[in-house]
Design the sequence.
């Protein structure tokens, strides 16, 4: 059996995902076959595997750090919130259905066999599994029938590292309070405490660490500094959503309530001179050089939100001067109409933004697949990325058709692309406004130098200079980030103690 170790947090956004990624990288560097695991993830950022199965992006990031291909068994349960009280439930990469929070709470124990099978599959080919918990193990209302924190740790006999976030304040109360709310058996599983996101001189923490260890009876395994990294993180708590200064090239991403897969735009953040701002109002929108409409878990609801707060009108006005690019749900919004005859989202029909000559009909069956090909010829400012090779994936519950001369027409692909098994990138433009683009392809900008070419085109139009080639290949950039993460953890964590926890795991 593989050795296991689990990272749990005192709260959401304590840094569990990055610590798991960093440990995966360290173990991989040390010559072990390692994989991440999270039994249940609640996220709107998702990914499609080679098999066409859907999983959370956090485990994809961790798999990249581990040097292995993402597999859906790393995240057997994915919850994608559709509103404040319900989520789409995805099990083993396939949609099970929509459930309210209460219904899922009553049902979730039925998924334990799926969790065990997924974990056992990982065990069959790796040496170490690094498990990520969710939220906090001390959520009293959620502890019954727990399948993601201490319930999972007991299920797979995992030692636990408990992480607290000092950047948000009260880290000693976080850690000690969490330990106090655990049962005796659960406390025995906690083998080390980690103080995360520290800024300053760690020596000033020594009195607090001494008291924490005395009262909690658990050693502090490390004090990890705040790290300036550009890696994918969990949804709504992302620091990417905080207000930023406007760069030489300014990109605005519309941050609607059910934004999903905003990882599509991370590649632009590593290009010097480019700002990527997530905006929620006309005031924040200002006058960017490019506007992205990202994916959405509730396309109709988010379109209504833009309509009500004035963003729709502002975007339509800006589209006369700057490019507007919709991905997935954003692409659907840019069309003439969205229809929901099966009640997938809100039912009925809604007028789109009428910027692209397309119509979308939402359907119960979700399309999720990887895809690659070449971008079709584009007019307007994005002409330079025409014919560029791309790799990406699609996740959507709608079929989109062109409207031409008042008639609906199915989207068609070039015959040679059909023969090669590739699909054309569905980048659709309107002849009336060459500034408006749409695509279903997530990850479209990650391939090659597509993002860099877009920035260069924007810079030329604006009359400013962004040094060409300043951005490195995005995949190489992420590899360097994982190495930097591992180097930092090696310096500030007691890895000898952590390896000791692994050696003790699964002792009969």
Sequence:
């Amino acid at each position: 059996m593989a050795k296991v170790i689990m990272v749990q947090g005192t709260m959401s956004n304590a840094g569990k995902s990055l610590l798991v990624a960093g440990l995966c990288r360290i173990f991989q560097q040390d010559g072990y076959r390692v994989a991440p695991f999270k039994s249940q993830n609640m996220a709107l950022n998702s990914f499609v595997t080679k098999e066409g199965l859907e999983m959370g992006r956090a485990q994809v990031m961790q798999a990249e750090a581990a040097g292995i291909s993402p597999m859906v068994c790393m995240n057997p349960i994915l919850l994608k919130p559709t509103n404040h009280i319900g989520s789409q439930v995805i099990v083993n990469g396939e949609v099970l259905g929509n459930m309210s929070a209460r219904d899922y709470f009553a049902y979730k124990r039925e998924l334990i066999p799926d969790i065990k099978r997924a974990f056992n599959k990982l065990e069959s080919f790796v040496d170490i599994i690094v498990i990520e918990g969710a939220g906090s193990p001390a959520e009293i209302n959620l502890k019954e029938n727990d399948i993601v924190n201490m319930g999972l740790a007991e299920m797979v006999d995992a030692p636990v590292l408990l992480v607290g976030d000092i950047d948000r304040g009260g880290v000693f109360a976080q850690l000690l309070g969490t330990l106090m709310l655990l049962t005796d058996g659960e406390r025995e599983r906690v083998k080390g405490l980690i103080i995360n996101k520290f800024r300053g001189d760690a020596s000033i923490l020594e009195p607090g660490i001494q008291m924490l260890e005395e009262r909690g009876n658990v050693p502090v395994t490390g004090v990890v500094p705040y790290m300036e990294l550009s890696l994918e993180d969990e949804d709504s708590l992302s620091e990417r959503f905080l207000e930023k200064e406007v760069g030489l090239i300014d990109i605005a991403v519309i941050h609607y309530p059910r934004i999903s897969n905003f990882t599509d735009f991370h590649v632009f953040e590593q290009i010097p001179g480019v700002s990527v701002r997530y905006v929620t109002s006309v005031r924040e929108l200002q006058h960017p050089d490019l506007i992205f409409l990202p994916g959405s878990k509730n396309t109709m609801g988010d379109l209504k939100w833009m309509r009500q707060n004035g963003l729709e009108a502002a975007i339509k006005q800006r589209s006369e001067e700057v490019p507007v690019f919709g991905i997935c749900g954003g692409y659907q919004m840019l069309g003439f109409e969205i229809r929901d005859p099966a009640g997938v989202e809100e039912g009925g029909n809604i007028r789109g933004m009428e910027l692209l000559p397309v119509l979308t009909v939402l359907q119960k069956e979700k399309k999720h697949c990887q895809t690659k090909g070449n971008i079709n010829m584009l007019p307007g400012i994005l002409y330079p990325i025409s014919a560029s090779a791309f790799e990406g994936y699609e996740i959507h519950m709608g079929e989109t058709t062109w409207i031409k001369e008042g008639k609906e027409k199915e989207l068609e692909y070039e015959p040679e692309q059909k023969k090669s098994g590739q699909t054309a990138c569905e980048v659709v433009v309107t002849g009336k406004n060459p500034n408006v683009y749409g695509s279903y392809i997530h990850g479209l900008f990650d391939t090659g130098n597509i993002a860099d070419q877009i920035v260069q085109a924007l810079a030329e139009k604006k009359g400013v200079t962004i040094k060409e080639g300043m951005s490195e290949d995005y995949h190489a950039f992420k590899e360097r980030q994982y190495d930097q993460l591992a180097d930092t953890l090696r310096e500030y964590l007691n890895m000898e103690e952590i390896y000791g926890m692994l050696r003790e795991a699964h002792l009969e």
User: Anything to note?
Assistant: The domain at 3-231+478-504 is CATH 3.40.50.300 (Rossmann fold). The first strand starts at residue 3 and ends at 9. The chain has two domains: 3-231+478-504, 249-465. The longest helix spans residues 474-492.
